[in-house]
Design goal:
Elements lengths: L2 E2 L1 H11 L9 E6 L10 E6 L7 E5 L2 E5 L1 H7 L2 E7 L5 E7 L6
Parallel strand pairs: 1-6, 2-5
Antiparallel strand pairs: 2-3, 4-5, 6-7
Length: 101
């Protein structure tokens, strides 16, 4: 299952915890193509909640909703994030180390 670093969890919470956001808001990752071969096929958007069949990943109060094709691709990955000088979030993926869970 996709894991989030502490930094990624904080960035996801910052993006989804604006005052206008409904309870349960999160980020949704979906694939633009069936069976994505790399992260370029993934799309990230805010969501008020999970869509039907989405896998829900929660970490440190952050919520990610993964559509099934994206969930399959991300199953052995770790999501990290950093903020640039303008406060823009940049996400990156790495493969989980053996025994990491």
């Amino acid at each position: 299952m996709l894991m989030l670093t502490e930094t990624a969890a904080e960035v996801v919470k910052a993006i989804t915890s604006i005052p206008q956001a409904p309870e349960g808001a999160g980020l949704r990752i979906e694939s633009a193509v069936p069976q994505p071969a790399d992260s370029a096929a993934l799309q990230l958007s805010t969501a008020v909640g999970p869509a039907e069949n989405d896998q829900v990943v929660e970490a440190a109060g952050a919520r990610l909703y993964l559509e099934p094709e994206a969930a399959a691709y991300l199953d052995d990955k770790v999501l990290d994030a950093e903020l640039d000088q303008e406060g823009q979030a940049h996400f990156s993926l790495a493969v989980q180390e053996p025994g990491q869970a």
